[in-house]
């Protein structure tokens, strides 16, 4: 069933995970190659053991059985686009185990989940499984590159400058998965010199009252610790009852990529990022303003 997907794209593997035990019932042959490991590591293993610990809860929330679209409904001849609207991809980092004597090497994947009945060889009975098509995500700046005119993504943040939503197009451009940014301060990811611009920007947001406008470029820190220069446009949603700004939407276009094109690389420094006092101060000023 999955071979038509996995043959077309060498970056995709398919895995069926039992919804009863969480164990891998089936995994396609490419998985070992893509994850740089031996095929035996998947035998009788729980799938979540291969995920980075902070992505486990994301995996469970997106693979709750009642949320899963049925594979047959989404791929059958009679399927209609509306039936599959609930089909939602999510992102996780997966590892095939230790590479030689190093740390675990995790790779980012876009996961598309489906509900399916699979015959278990050991139990000799059918059981409900979550079928996942996992596609490795590569940096948008490495070949095959995302063309400059398509290097666009959107974000939404709250009046107190915390990320509320991040468009999945940001993943190959910034190196973060949506769950890395949602709930974190927007200002923390900006170049320290560009943070004060946000106060002026939010004054303009009030002035334009929901209408979009362009703003000067800002430098955004990618996951590998380098800065990406983005041109930004902003608008806001004003609650018609309270007349207050509910959230702010940013549309961003990458003007200049990072020097190190691998945005998924782990940054060289490993110091715990302390919250700069200016972030707290600017956030409070913006919050008061809105």
Key phrases:
290 residues, alpha+beta, Beta-Lactamase, 2 domains, 5-stranded antiparallel sheet, 10 strands, elongated
Can you describe this structure?
With 290 residues, the protein is of the alpha+beta class. 19% of the residues lie in helices and 32% in strands. It has two domains: 1-136, Beta-Lactamase, CATH 3.30.450; 148-289, PAS domain (Beta-Lactamase). The protein has helices at 3-8, 30-34, 56-62, 71-75, 171-174, 178-181, 197-208, 277-289, and strands at 12-18, 24-27, 90-98, 104-120, 125-136, 152-157, 163-166, 213-221, 227-238, 245-256. The protein has a five-stranded antiparallel β-sheet with strand order 2-1-5-4-3. A five-stranded antiparallel β-sheet has the order 7-6-10-9-8. The radius of gyration is 21 Å and the shape is elongated. The chain starts with a helix and ends with a helix.
Overall outline = elongated
Percent of sequence in beta strands: 25-35%
Total strands: 10
**Sheet with the most strands?**
5 strands, antiparallel
User: Residue-averaged pLDDT, rounded?
Assistant: 88
State the distance separating the first and last CA atoms: 52 Å
Low-pLDDT runs: none
CATH architecture field of the largest domain: 2-Layer Sandwich
Give me the side-by-side strand order of the main sheet: 2-1-5-4-3
Helix content: 10-25%
Backbone structural class: alpha+beta
As a whole number of angstroms, the C-alpha radius of gyration is: 21 Å
CATH homologous superfamily grouping of the largest domain: PAS domain
Taken together, the total number of domains comes to 2
Please tally the helical runs, counting DSSP H or I stretches of 4 or more residues. Answer: 8
* CATH topology-level name of the largest domain: Beta-Lactamase
CATH secondary-structure class of the largest domain: Alpha Beta
- Give, in order, the helices and strands: HEEHHHEEEEEHHHEEEH
